[in-house]
Structure formats: structure tokens, C-alpha cells
Write a structure and sequence with these properties.
Layout: E1 2-5, H1 13-23, E2 26-29, E3 47-50, H2 58-67, E4 71-74, H3 84-87, E5 92-94, H4 101-116, H5 119-127, E6 145-149, H6 153-164, E7 168-172, H7 187-193, E8 196-199, H8 213-216, E9 223-227, H9 236-244, E10 248-253, H10 275-282, E11 286-288, H11 297-317, H12 335-339
Parallel strand pairs: 1-2, 1-3, 3-4, 4-5, 6-7, 6-8, 8-9, 9-10, 10-11
Helix pairs in contact: 1-11, 4-6
The structure holds nicotinamide-adenine-dinucleotide.
């Protein structure tokens, strides 16, 4: 089995090389992202392995299909970068539905604590032998209300962490889980009552720009927004305005809607063209990390293991594991439920 591995980073290689050696898989590592222009690199490969910012649109799928590629293996959970309907009937797409919800939830809390207790400022100050405390006053999380949007695997771990801090938790989910023991409320109520809001739902047409110019007016004044899900849940330009209008007191972001052009790369010493990103970075109450919430040893190990297992299952049994839903429209008679395969 030959697999074209796009958007390779140094930290990806050890786990995949080890797994590849064990199961006779040859990984061809490419630093470039998968795009219409780079799809040709997959020539001679049975599968491609991609990450969050690779492009898997109709044109790319068409090119891969023409090259004889049979499987797209996402080494991530979210699949908003895949045109699922264009893939249906042509190329199977599998993903890693869970690798460490703890990694992402703990990073969300790390960002929140950094922001609330001004750790990023204190760290720099002390390194400069400035031991003054002026401007570093934070507040207790204990007793504050946190609103969690999306109560799946990551959202629920984040809720447990918040409960450990003695926070009151409000939850919103399009598909609430009645057994989760959560206080589900309408989204407007969550927006109105929360001191902190953390997003853990997928990016879909429905959740695109969930935070926008209009919904920002519904937020409690002084709210802190946390986004470790997908950038486009938040309209970044509206976020800047909301911060300037002092409605949003801080934003902690691991994702950004235009991240694919910049994240995971070193632009130090360069001029970044994205003015909204530059504005966000310049604001003292915005903390931005470069889509690193997943990046723990445990998560990397699980990602490599599950991805390799997904690839093997497909080529050895013909039945894909962890295949995503192509929304083929045949809800009444889901073929996968009957035969284990969508096509
Ligand atoms: P999950 O599928 O377990 O949970 C998602 C939850 O969102 C589900 O409960 C679902 O019902 C809910 N949901 C779906 N549509 C919704 C809507 N319109 N409004 C509100 N809730 C809705 O997924 P997860 O593993 O908890 O991951 C959540 C998201 O985190 C992923 O979609 C991915 O985008 C993001 N993620 C980010 C990183 C990172 O490194 N920053 C890593 C992994 C995942």
C-alpha cells in the first residue's frame, strides 16, 4: 500500500513511519498541502492522508479519482474541508472520530486560564525582571457561568473540567443528550447568561458564523469567547468589532477562519497580508494559538494508530472503518446500515 501524505509536519512522521513499517505501508511524505495543483503528487498511490487544511473539494476528488486513488484518510476528526457529496460513489473517505478529547478540552481551559490570570503577560514581564503586578488582576472562574456549545466528546470533557472549577454550566446542542445530566438551554439564553462561552460543535452550514454582528449583540457584556473547534464558527471581522465595542472582553482562539493560508507555518520576518488576523494578534485581550489543541503525545499516537487501522481495514476487507457520512440522501434506507458500505 502506497499512501501520499500531505501537509506533513515533523511531529507526524515518527508515528506513521512506525505503523507503516509494521503493516507494510509506504508513506510518501509531502510538505505541501493537497490542492488542485498538488493532487498529481498522489500518482501511483492507493490512498491519500490529509489534515484539517488540505483541500478535498470536487475538483481535487476528481483528480484523485482519475489517478486511481481509492481512499482519502483524514488524520483528524472534523471534515468540513471535504466535499462529501462529490466523494460519494467515487472515493471513500475515512477519519479519526476521536483521538483525545482531553487534549482539546485541556487546551481550551489552558487558554482560558492564561487569559483570565494574564499568564502570558506575567511570563514576559518576569523574564524582563519586571516584578510589578499592575494590570495583572484576574477574576475567579469559581461561581461564573460557562456556556458550552456542542456537548459531544470534547464539549463534555470541557464541561467536567469547568465543573471541577466550580463553574455553573449551561449547554446548547442541536441534538441534546438527555442522559448527559446537563442543563440544556436555548442558544439565545446561553449567549445572554454566560460569562464564558466555549465552542465544541462542528463547522456546518448551520454553524458557519454562529458568532456574527447580530448574535454578538445578544452576548453578556464582558463575555470571554473560546474557540477550539473551527475558525469559521466566528466571523472574525465581527469579533474585532465586538472587542472594540467592549462587548467581548477577551477571545481565546485556537482556530481562525482564514487559517489555512498561515497556520502551521513560520511567517516570522514576513509581512502577513491578512489584516483581520494582524488586528486580532495586536489586541491585548486576544490569545491565539495555531490550531495546536490536538497536539499531545497521546493524541498523535492515537491519530497514527486509527488512521493506519482505517487504511488497512479498507484495503484488506473492503469495508471502510470510520467512514464519514456522505449525506447521500437515502436516509430512509441507509445502505451502510445494511451492508457496511456506502457504495
Ligand atoms: P463530536 O461529534 O463528539 O461532538 C460534536 C457535538 O456538536 C455533537 O454533540 C453534536 O450534536 C453537536 N452539534 C452538531 N451540530 C450542532 C449545531 N448546529 N449546534 C450545536 N451543536 C451541534 O465532536 P468532538 O470530537 O467533540 O469535536 C468537536 C469539534 O472540535 C470538531 O467538529 C472539530 O471541528 C473540533 N476539533 C478541533 C481540534 C483542534 O485541534 N483545535 C481537534 C479536534 C476536534
Amino acid at each position: 500500500m502506497r499512501i501520499a501524505f500531505f501537509d506533513t509536519k515533523d511531529y507526524d512522521k515518527p508515528g506513521f513511519l512506525k505503523a507503516g513499517e509494521k503493516y507494510g505501508m509506504e508513506f510518501r511524505f509531502f510538505e505541501t498541502k493537497l490542492t488542485e495543483d498538488t493532487a498529481a503528487l498522489a500518482a501511483g498511490c492507493d490512498a491519500v492522508c490529509v489534515f484539517v487544511n488540505d483541500t478535498v473539494n470536487a475538483a481535487v476528488l476528481e483528480r484523485l479519482y482519475a489517478l486511481g486513488v481509492k481512499l482519502v484518510a483524514l488524520r483528524c476528526a472534523g471534515y468540513n474541508n471535504v466535499d462529501v457529496q462529490a466523494a460519494f460513489g467515487k472515493i471513500h473517505v475515512v477519519r479519526v472520530p476521536a483521538y483525545s478529547p482531553y487534549a482539546v478540552a485541556e487546551h481550551a481551559m489552558a487558554l482560558l486560564l492564561t487569559s483570565v490570570r494574564r499568564i502570558h503577560k506575567a511570563y514576559n514581564r518576569v523574564r524582563d525582571f519586571n516584578f510589578s503586578l499592575n494590570g495583572l488582576t484576574g477574576f475567579d472562574l469559581h461561581g461564573k457561568t460557562v456556556g458550552v456549545v456542542g456537548t459531544g466528546k470534547i464539549g463534555r470533557v470541557f464541561i467536567d473540567i469547568c465543573r471541577g472549577f466550580g463553574m455553573r454550566v449551561l449547554a446548547y446542542d442541536k441534538f441534546p443528550n438527555p442522559d448527559a445530566g446537563l442543563d440544556y438551554v436555548e442558544l439565545d439564553t446561553l449567549f445572554r447568561e454566560s460569562d464564558v462561552i466555549s465552542f465544541h460543535c462542528p463547522l456546518t452550514e448551520e454553524t458557519y458564523h454562529l458568532v456574527n454582528g447580530e448574535s454578538i449583540r445578544k452576548l453578556k457584556k464582558g463575555v470571554i469567547l473560546l474557540n477550539t473547534s473551527r475558525g469559521a464558527l466566528i466571523d472574525a471581522a465581527a469579533l474585532v468589532t465586538g472587542i472594540k465595542e467592549r462587548i467581548i472582553s477577551a477571545a481565546c482562539l485556537d482556530v481562525y477562519e482564514e487559517e489555512s493560508d498561515v497556520f502551521f507555518r513560520d511567517f516570522s520576518g514576513h509581512i502577513v497580508d491578512d489584516d483581520t488576523l494582524a488586528r486580532l494578534i495586536s489586541l491585548p485581550n486576544v490569545i491565539l494559538t495555531s490550531h495546536q489543541a490536538f497536539l499531545t503525545n497521546e493524541a498523535l499516537e492515537n491519530i497514527a494508530e486509527t488512521t493506519v487501522k482505517n487504511i488497512r481495514a479498507f484495503f484488506e476487507t473492503g469495508v471502510p472503518e470510520n467512514e464519514l457520512c456522505y449525506r447521500c440522501g437515502r436516509i430512509e434506507e441507509c445502505r451502510r446500515d445494511r451492508s457496511g458500505k456506502c457504495f
